Amino acid sequence: MTSTFHHVSNKLSPLQRLLNYGQKYRGQIYQASTYSVINTTLDIAPPWLVGIAVDILVQQQSSIIAKFGIKEVVWQFALLSLITIIIWVFESLSQYAYDRLWRNVAQNIQHNLRLDAYNHLQQLESAYFEDSSTGGLMSILSDDINQLEDFLNGGANEVIQVTTSLMILVIGAFCILPINITLAAMLPMPFILWGSLIYQKRLEPLYANVREKVGFLNSRLANNISGITTIKSFTAENYENARLAEESEAYRKSNTKAIKLSAAFVPLIRMLVLAGFTALLFLGGMAAYSQKISIGNYSVLLVLVQRLLWPLVFLGETFDHYQRAMASTKRVMDLLDTPIQITTGDMPLIVEQVRGEVDFKNVTFAYRNSATIIKDLSLHIPAGKTIAVVGSTGSGKSTLVKLLLRFYDVSSGAITIDGIDIQKLNLSDLRRSIGLVSQDVFLFHGTVAENIAYGTFDATEEAIINAAKVAEAHDFIMRLPQGYETIVGERGQKLSGGQRQRIAIARAVVKNPPILILDEATSAVDNETEAAIQRSLEKITVNRTTIAIAHRLSTIRNADCIYVMESGQLVESATHEELLEKNGIYASLWRVQSGLR
């Protein structure tokens, strides 16, 4: 059903997809549109007031106002002045109303669209992020949504006002002018509308290309900023400058193509409007001269057409903003329509009641468009026991962790916790039951305390400090400038690798999960830090199901059972001593790491 919806949704235009999304804002949009129409109607009133003033001067006691019983010219002008004041006041009020409403609509849609897109992004499977760039996703969540906000702030109102102006002009012309003069004056209008649609279709692919190029550019910038240390250490600044210049030049060229086409729109519109204005100027003037229409009405139409010239000229800029917004809308909606492959189960899992018995039953798995990584693997992990999985790089050790956390789903077979298939479990409950300490520790920009309590956001100060002590992190934290309130910097860059690792362990202690996964948790630290971490792990693994993925065999020699993986299969399993006695793959690895060979 999800994929079918995605297919149908993609057939709709970006505007239709945006309107479908914005249905809950319909009331606000209708209200804002109403004030835009009222404001435009009142804004066009001054030409009519000028026409009435001319009519008073020319016709005097026979003017249009005189027909209402006011014969004195002074009182006619007094009434006209009063009407002018009223119109101006209401025009100002309606402008305030539509401006405030459109801006609020833009802010609300921007805010909710960004949150919805980000929330949807968080629910997508890991494979999606492997195929997408961080910079590209940042471009969608930031630049593209801001582009849409810019259009809603002013462009939507401009379209409504130009349309209203056109309708008033056409109706006014047909009511005042002879049919032949009206048709001559209106002749350019179909060409203007037709030309606008042609331009819109031609600009659409150009701006889609612009948004794609800016995504590539943002991706390059995001990668380079993240890898600035590597760039500096390899003195690759000039190389990266050249690569960034290449991406920026591609973006500039794509924009130049769009600008070349969009810039021609306004001059063409001017020429078309000129044709209509000239026809009205000459034919209408002759009609006024021959007294077929009044001089006042002729004045009104001349000023109206002139007033309409500028909105039509700006219509080109509005279409330009519209196409940019629609190109961005398509990218945002494509993200929102991306189907979620890893769906939550319906069965709740009460974390406090989880025993922690884990079973891999004939599990087979392959990453997208790649060879099989795990092949018909079966593995039983008793509740409360510590098991270790070792093997060469690429043997599939870390993939087991990803499957247990449902970052990916198995191709075949099943994984159970306490006898329940994890695909049937509520996804949040499943992940709350598992604590992960990996070699690639990610700390968020914030304080040490905030990072320890991450995921357990209601943790008390006492619980945070106790967890840090268990992780043997308390002493170094207290030596930091502000202790637990020290800002760790983006990705924890102000701390050493060992310090980050110990904060990650403290985070797992606060979480207190029934199942703990240690994925190469000591692979990137020095011997002293490893010893400290090892002491911490011995404390937190007591009476807790623990799965240790290890490269350093010395860290898992006390595990209840050690499994050796090769090419996605378990080839050996026993305790440390038993595996040494078997003199197989594990024994060979042990001798290499121990320096016995």
Automatic annotation (TrEMBL):
UniProt xrefs under InterPro entries: AAA+_ATPase, ABC1_TM_dom, ABC1_TM_sf, ABC_transporter-like_ATP-bd, ABC_transporter-like_CS, P-loop_NTPase, Type_1_exporter
Keyword annotations from UniProtKB, A to Z: ATP-binding, Membrane, Nucleotide-binding, Transmembrane, Transmembrane helix
Record-linked Gene3D superfamilies: ABC transporter type 1, transmembrane domain, P-loop containing nucleotide triphosphate hydrolases
UniProt domain ABC transporter: residue ranges: 358-592
Membrane topology: Multi-pass membrane protein
Alphabetical list of Pfam families matching this protein: ABC_membrane, ABC_tran
Membrane spanning residue stretches: 73-90, 166-194, 261-289
SUPFAM superfamilies assigned: ABC transporter transmembrane region, P-loop containing nucleoside triphosphate hydrolases
Domain ABC transmembrane type-1 span(s) in chain numbering: 36-324
UniProt-recorded Gene Ontology molecular function terms: ATP binding
Localization: Cell membrane
UniProt-listed PANTHER family: ATP-BINDING CASSETTE SUB-FAMILY B MEMBER 10, MITOCHONDRIAL (PTHR43394:SF1), ATP-DEPENDENT PERMEASE MDL1, MITOCHONDRIAL (PTHR43394)
Protein name per Swiss-Prot or TrEMBL: ABC transporter ATP-binding protein
Source lineage: Bacteria, Bacillati, Cyanobacteriota, Cyanophyceae, Nostocales
